[in-house]
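Why show two proteins at once? Because comparison is the fastest way to build intuition. When a single record is shown, students tend to memorize it. When two are placed side by side, the eye starts asking what differs. So, the first record is below.
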Amino acid sequence: DVFEQPQHVGHKKIEFHITTDIPSVLQINSEREEKNDLSATTEEINNAGFGKIFPAPTSNDKMETEEESDEIPSEFISRRELEKNRLSREEMEKFSVFKNYEPGDPNCRIYVKNLAKQVQEKDLKFIFGRYVDFESEMERNMFDIRLMKEGRMKGQAFIGLPNEKAAAKALKEVNGYVLFEKPMVVQFARSARPKQDSNEGKRKK
């Protein structure tokens, strides 16, 4: 019987959220504190009986951190960041570099153009590294970045990825990503027919 009364007080905890500067509230608070001491003891007794109440929040925290780490290591760009700085299809149409855009025939090499002058290999690794499993020696060896900084090929890069699936995913997610205020044009590489690339450039006005 003694413990039944304070339990009703426990439901009145909502009143704690009221914050005012009126001095009379202080008196009410001191009265509540006495009642809360009682309710605290009942809570301790209740929780002792129902120990399962405690692990629930901690297990949720673990799940959240696992989901975050499940994404991609922080040394590479996140999917959220890619989506945030990527042009929409409508925006791409306004840029001449995306005129007559074709992804090309799928393979494990990617061709990137319209890169800003200040782009470095580490920038491309930061973006395309998310498509490589660095724990696998084979995938690490397949990952290759060739950034052209001189001559006619300036502002272009070739990136070798572990497989066609990784390359297709990279193309889908990175094409139109704005790096140093310039949208990247990502296509499957056509190393076998380099002459067509130069003709294609002439066709674009």
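Second record. Ask yourself what differs from the first in the token line.
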Amino acid sequence: MLGKKLVTAQKRGETRALCLGLGMVACSMMMYFFIGITIVPFYTKSVWTTETVCKVLRATIEDKDPCLNSQGSEDEGATHYPCLQVWVNLTASGQEVMLYQTEDTLERNPKCSYVPGNSENPKEVQARIETIASNFKKYQTFPCYYDPGGTQANVILSRIYPPRGLLFAFLWPTLMFTGGCLIIILVKISQYVSVLSAWQ
């Protein structure tokens, strides 16, 4: 009687462990799919893939012609902010090009090097832009990214999804997938050993 109870408890434990392993594998596959349709397209679409050194030529704040924060539209919700324009000397080619913060900055407003958030305080935005401009004037040489194919004649300060960030995004689903597979393998080994012991 005790033996039957132990076998029943063992089978229940194996079933739960197997369900846990399958659930982890299923969740990791969903995470892979989510990353594949959200992060990977942004990474592959970026043409600024090569790192080089940029030297600041000038950093100016255009107060007379403020930029719009909603992709240049004249909507009522659009907020105005001073336009920071940073021009740098590209070490790789020696060209004078405009610097943008990220790939998204160029899409949101190609006239400005920095685009603040939509809901930020105008005074805080003004102070931040002045601080950024002074930092560029202070630290004139820094790493940046350019397009080696020449389709974009400008550079960006940082990529939204660098290779290291993409690897980090794939790390957690990979660990979950590996853990789920290990659980399934251990359950199958346990079942095989149990059957082998019963046969002997």
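One difference worth noting in the second protein: The CA atoms of residues 100 and 106 lie 6 Å apart.
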